[in-house]
Amino acid sequence: MGSQGGLAPQDAQDAAAFVGLLRQLKEESGLTYRQLEDRAADRGEVLARSTLADVLRRATLPRPETLAVFVRACGDDHDVGAWLEARDRIAAGEGSQVGSSAASGVAWLPRGFRLLSVVAVALVLAAFAWIIVPDSSNGRAARAGPSIGKPDSGQPLLLSSEECPGVLVKGAHNLCVQELQKRLQHHGLDLPADAVFGPYTKMRLMAFQAFAGIPLTAMADETTKKALYEETRKIDTWTPKQVERRLREVFPEQPEKAVRLVRCLTLLDPIWIWGNPDGSRQWGLFQFSDLELMELGAEPLTALNPERNIQLGRAVWERTKDFNHWSCQPNIAATAERRS
């Protein structure tokens, strides 16, 4: 699928052609570097003007996270996935050229020596792989990557190492994001460790920040990384079944409507957090906005407590004895249900 304006990232065959398409994308957007930086910031993402200028000036592939933020800043109608897939394909192709170059280096030898040379190269590469790739002790295939230390092992911690960017933001997809997701899982938060920093990971990260009492940046900055490696009590929340049962108890007059509304709003997920285009956020089962929480004298952490959130919902319901205060957009829930 091509991008808006006829740009087709999948047609790029090398890094230079790919960056050329990125330059065209910027031109088609009609936005300046400052405007692109501001649009990214409006989404809670980071896209420094200097970084973007450097990316578009060179003929090398940008980081995946930078690419994703840039494409989104150029317009919501662009297919970020297509750009990331094209970037990864080119990166993989450039990596495979190393092996082909090694083979071509013995092409001038006689046939017998050529075969021996190729075998020797293969043996050397296999031996090297044996050294750098640890065997898997759980029966799964081992994969090469940065070494990941445990908090009490004395080894470097991946998120705080030079292997990872200083700040991880939505749009990144790499082993650093996977480590971030695993640390969130360790603290009791349910999410896939798929190495993709999408809306669901952003939601869970913000929930962790709220429970940890650190700034709600929705980004894995240094403060958040440090907190992720600290051993604290796991976050304990309700299952959807527990939420449904409690909703029926608190709203005996309209139990079906209560469950249907909250399922539409948040999939019965007590720590559901949704960000709006204007930078405001909505919290918990009944999706109270920042302003509503302020008016109710409540904090975001209060709204993430399922019992407190349901009681706040009951207080609002009492005013009119109905649920007309809320409106649900099913597409929001359906989008996040993919947990991407």
Automatic annotation (TrEMBL):
The keyword Membrane applies. Gene3D superfamilies: PGBD-like superfamily/PGBD. It comes from the Bacteria. Keywords: Membrane, Transmembrane, Transmembrane helix. This is Peptidoglycan-binding protein. The chain crosses the membrane at residues 113-133. Residues 177-228 form the Peptidoglycan binding-like domain. The keyword Membrane applies. Pfam families: HTH_31 (PF13560), PG_binding_1 (PF01471).
